[in-house]
Structure formats: C-alpha cells, structure tokens
Design brief:
It comes from Sphaerotilus montanus. This is Malate dehydrogenase. Belongs to the LDH/MDH superfamily. MDH type 2 family. Helix 1 packs parallel to helix 10, helix 5 packs across helix 11 and helix 6 packs across helix 8. The strands form 4 sheets. A 6-stranded parallel sheet has the order 3-2-1-4-5-6, sandwiched between helices. It has a 3-stranded antiparallel sheet with strand order 7-10-11. A 3-stranded antiparallel sheet has the order 12-13-14. It is of the alpha/beta class and 327 residues long. It is built from 11 helices and 14 strands. The longest helix is centred in the middle third of the chain and has 22 residues. Helix content is 44%, strand content 19%. The structure holds 1,4-dihydronicotinamide adenine dinucleotide. 1,4-dihydronicotinamide adenine dinucleotide (NAI) binds next to helix 1.
Length: 327
C-alpha cells in the first residue's frame, strides 16, 4: 500500500473546512488508494480550537480507512511540517465597511507568515492551493514569502468559477455538464474573471455556434458567473461553502492525478503567457499530467476577450500594487 501523504488545511473549523475535510479523508482528492494525514490549522482563539476539536471528533467517527492521522495546530510552523499538499482556506474576507487597505494588510500578514512557514518546514515539493479571498493576491503573497520553494507550486482557486461557467452552459444548451470540454476562465477570482466558451465543445460541436448569441454571453452569462458568489450569499445568508470545497477537491485532484488531456482552470503564476506580466497569479486554461500543470497555449484572443482580460488583469495589478509594501 502507498505511503501516507500529509495534507495541511487552514481555516479547518470554518464552513469550507467542514465541507472539505471529510472528502479529503475519504479519498476523493488524492485517490481511493492514497492514505492521508490531515494537519489542521486554526487561529489560536479558544473558540476556534474548540470547534476544531469537534470537527476532529467527527472525522474520527467516520472511521475513514484512508485517514491514518489527524493533527490540530494553531501555528503554521508546526501545521505545515513536511506537508505535501497545503490548502489555504482560512483568511479574512472583506467585511462590511472594511477598507481595501485594511483587507490587504490583514491578509498580507496572514499569507506572509504562512508562506514563510511553508518555505521553512514544508516538503520541498509541496503543492499549495489558496482558496481564502482575495485568493489570487493571497497566493501571490505566499509565493513571494517562500523563495526556496518552486513558484509554480503556488496556485489560486479559479475552479469554482470554471464549474459555475460549465453549469450555466449546460443549462443554456440543455446538454450534460460532463460533456463540456475546453472551457477557460481567465484572470482574477472576482466578478472581473472572464469565462470564455469560444473554444468549448460538446460532442465535438462548438458551444459558441450552438449558443450563437453574443448578447447572452455579454449580458447574461458573464454577469451570472461573475456575480454567482453574491447571489449565493443573498439566498443562503452565507457564502458558498460546499461548492467551494468541491472546487478545491477538483483542483487538487486534477493537479495530482491528471486530467487526461481535459482543460481545467487554475490560478497560476504567469511566465508571460498571453501577455500577462510574469508572476501575476492569473487564471489560465491548463491540462495536468504527472503532477504538473501546463498552460493551453496558442489560443486566439479576439478584441472582446482582450478587453475582458485587460480588465481582470488591471484589477489584479491593483491588488498586487496594494500589497507591494508588505512583501
Ligand atoms: P469561515 O469564516 O467559515 O471560515 C474561515 C476559518 O478560517 C475560520 O474558522 C477562521 O477562524 C479561520 N482562519 C482565519 N484566519 C486564519 C489563519 N490565519 N490561520 C488559520 N485559520 C484561519 O469562511 P469560509 O466560508 O470557510 O471561507 C473561507 C475563505 O474562502 C473566505 O476567505 C472566503 O471568501 C473564501 N472563498 C473562496 C472561494 C474561491 O472560489 N476562491 C469561494 C468561496 C469562499
């Protein structure tokens, strides 16, 4: 049987944590033959640590055959020790009335500390997914704080946007969501992301031709996908958690186990592809194989797409600028 791998999860007692940990432990993320040790991090506050204890009791009570160890931590320097995978979920999302500078500085501190801890103690091959918002910029901060780790191993979650886009296209075309191939989401995990179905196919047929409605793309599809998070908060009174956890599972599973040629979306540090400045943590269409992702290159970018990409890039550059002094 396989040697266990270590999976660190931050914000483990939060909403997403509750929807995520049980699926990691059951083998949905890394395979039904891969034993895991969970290294769970929460803030030191007693209430959070108590809640974490409760989650751990429930994990124990599932008697998952693949779950061979569970650790509770309040310090990233111990939580990330030798970890092979790190899912950084805990962060400080923007609250009502919170200034942008305040948001960026609080998260700057969190993700600088966590990047440094990964740099110091994690496996040299650790694969990092940042879920906590603002996800792209938090991933960028962690990457910059971890100069001894491969920059390419720091990623941000765009997969929820990808899955939301796929679901809208399935509804529009009346086709099964699993039949949709070659969908791309570019840019920031924010309402500015650009979900792009120009290359998408269903059964080899062009989705763009099937839909054949540019007004729907611009006025319905993009705003629906972009504002989906807000729509869920309005309906549920809480931000999306199960679908976010599901997207995190998809992202890590595909990265670790491969996509068999299928396109998925990951937020990854640019090497200049598609004219995006190097190091920008940007959503790109990728394929995964052998534990590595590869950007789908050579796609034509038309004027409307370029405009959308420029807009989401400008937002990311603004965020990057806002944290410059923290790095
Ligand atoms: P939540 O508030 O229920 O849980 C967050 C948990 O993180 C809390 O238990 C908190 O104590 C913990 N935490 C905060 N700072 C921490 C730190 N420095 N170290 C360890 N733990 C820490 O929030 P929820 O719903 O689980 O969401 C988590 C994050 O994910 C939020 O930032 C949210 O905006 C983001 N999110 C991102 C999505 C994406 O697509 N990238 C989608 C949905 C949510």
């Amino acid at each position: 049987s396989k040697k266990p791998v270590r999976v660190a999860v931050t914000g483990a007692a939060g909403q997403i944590g509750y929807a995520l940990l049980f699926r990691i432990a059951s083998g949905e993320m890394l395979g039904k033959d891969q034993p895991v040790i969970l290294q769970l991090l929460e803030v030191p506050m007693e209430k959070a640590q108590e809640a974490l204890k409760g989650v751990i009791m429930e994990l124990e009570d599932c008697a998952f055959p693949l779950l061979v160890g569970i650790e509770a931590h309040s310090d990233p320097m111990t939580a990330f020790k030798d970890t092979d995978y790190a899912l950084l979920v805990g962060s400080r999302p923007r609250g009502p009335g919170m200034e942008r500078a305040e948001l960026l500085s609080i998260n700057g501190a969190i993700f600088t500390a966590q990047g440094k801890a990964l740099n110091a103690v994690a496996s040299r091959d650790v694969r990092v997914l940042v879920v906590g918002n603002p996800a792209n910029t938090n991933a960028y901060i962690a990457m910059k704080a971890a100069p001894d780790l491969p920059a390419k191993n720091f990623t941000a979650m765009l997969r929820l946007d990808h899955n939301r886009a796929a679901s809208q296209i399935a509804a529009k075309t009346g086709k099964p969501v699993a039949a949709i191939e070659k969908l791309a989401v570019w840019g920031n995990h924010s309402p500015t992301m650009y979900a792009d179905y120009r290359f998408a196919t269903i059964g080899g047929e062009s989705v763009k031709d099937m839909i054949n409605d540019e007004a729907w793309n611009r006025d319905v599809f993009l705003p629906t996908v972009g504002k989906r998070g807000a729509a869920i908060i309005a309906a549920r009174g809480l931000s999306s958690a199960a679908s976010a956890a599901n997207a995190a599972i998809d992202h890590m599973r595909d990265w670790a186990l491969g996509t068999n040629g299928a396109w998925v979306t990951m937020g990854i540090p640019s090497n200049g592809e598609y004219g995006i400045p190097a190091e920008t943590m940007f959503g790109y269409p990728v394929t995964c194989e052998g534990g590595e992702y590869k950007i789908v290159e050579g796609l034509a970018i038309d004027a409307f797409s370029q405009e959308c990409i420029n807009k989401t890039l400008a937002e990311l550059e603004g965020e990057k600028d806002g944290v410059k002094h923290l790095l």
